[in-house]
Fold this protein.
Amino acid sequence: MVSGEFDLIETYFAGLTRPRADVLLGVGDDCALLAPPVGQALAVSIDTLVEGRHFAPGADAFGLGHKALAVNLSDLAAMGAEAAWFTLALSLPRIDDAWLSGFSRGLATLAERHGVGLVGGDTTRGPLTITIQVHGFVPPAEALRRGGARPGDLVYVTGTLGAAGLALLVRQGLYAAPEHLGELFDRLDRPEPRIEAGCALRGIASAAIDVSDGLAADLGHICRASGVGATLYLDQLPCGPGVREYIAESGDWHLPLGAGDDYELCVCVPADRQGDFEHAAARWGHGATWVGTIDARPGVRVIDPEGGAVAVGAAGFDHFADN
Amino acid sequence: MVSGEFDLIETYFAGLTRPRADVLLGVGDDCALLAPPVGQALAVSIDTLVEGRHFAPGADAFGLGHKALAVNLSDLAAMGAEAAWFTLALSLPRIDDAWLSGFSRGLATLAERHGVGLVGGDTTRGPLTITIQVHGFVPPAEALRRGGARPGDLVYVTGTLGAAGLALLVRQGLYAAPEHLGELFDRLDRPEPRIEAGCALRGIASAAIDVSDGLAADLGHICRASGVGATLYLDQLPCGPGVREYIAESGDWHLPLGAGDDYELCVCVPADRQGDFEHAAARWGHGATWVGTIDARPGVRVIDPEGGAVAVGAAGFDHFADN
């Protein structure tokens, strides 16, 4: 049983630090002192998960530890950056040893897989809120920015889409899926950041983003930043068996197009780099699928299997909209 | 009136970015891309303020913007680092234009004074929680670590102690101070991070920490990290007129010794660097005062004006203790 802030850090989070030569001074001083590699840009991103907003009260602590780090690592992946360090700001209502133990194990398991070390943090009493900042490295000229897409580029997505959204429907009691449940919930609760794919796309992709707000909305971010538009083909969207069944039963194509939380990468590839891209993608277990094309007309258009235009309703997840 | 997350960032926080040559890509992509200077360590620190824990509901938004950044810059100061960039993770219950406007102006005013630019952030709906991470630079060999104090070193504090604690007593209705009210509340609500002092102490101080948990507790952190002890002299503690009156009336020395939130620096200086230290300190408006000495016996001892030992009760602010 730990009794206060200092014990808490020592007991649960000291094990998340890693012996990295680029950590000159880790957790425990006023600041961490870090040595970024010369010639690389430092890529940073910060993201918060709030109880009742991003996850339900009582959500599994191990999964939360995993997901809080995963959504941040996903931002590094979308930039083509390798992961190096993270910091954690944790507000929690009380010291709950079982919760803290599960949470820190969830963090540690994913952190170890990506070689990323905890270098600082703050713990305080308050409503359950988890903020993580990640730090990674990428050669600045090869970073996968949102603004580099050009008309004629091919649009790909890694892995499959819609599984996290379907898991949420099942968890909310809005859809009864007879099978694939474990896999579905893993996609929602334990997304796998596509760091390996992001790093492999340096110098190949013209733009990338991670699919957190839904494919149509996130591709829309790329289009606005690049001053271009895009056309997506519904029958090309890669979906797993659970999502395919759901679509066959409901006729609702919104999941792979608009549901958030997939944390796949949406990648734009110049046509003359298609061979290099597919060569790289062949090495990933999760693969990548061509889903559309960049063009000059602003906006994102979606074409159904009969060649008709699909109305894209929701503009993606907005944290202040009532969704 | 802004209606969602993307507008919110654009409206209130875009003005916090700064044209710095070392910001390759700022707010708006999956990550910021930053170029730390070669040969310097990157110093990072993350801190959270929670409504109801660190500040009362209804607290002035401008002051919160100032304080949320100030407590983080104070960590850079305690490391001897110059400030460069910050990120902001903000959870708030609803979009309140007046609050956001005040908060962002409070942030911007302090950020401009220290030349620090916003490079990333996340906004989400939730209980009011403000997390900031700061990033600064310091030559690694000159960083002011906690572990460098040695027996014989002199202990100094910048500015004055206890004013923030007294302001809290007044605000809680536990003490009626007739005068100095504006100044007192400024010390609590708008602490000034001692960045200039911290940078000037590179190569002079052996150890430093910022006084956030109370002088005795924070000096205790230095002593534990350095494997030493310290003796403090009550009649040397620098206090402003309000705190002196309070002590004269109440006989309670706890404020300058144990109250947190002062955000002054506690600095250890080898005896042979005393001249250099006092030469540097003479240039600061807030000055610095000798308050004690590092010795070999573990623990922090406090000596009253008659030469007797004072019991140091509270071990400093612990976010999970019921204080």
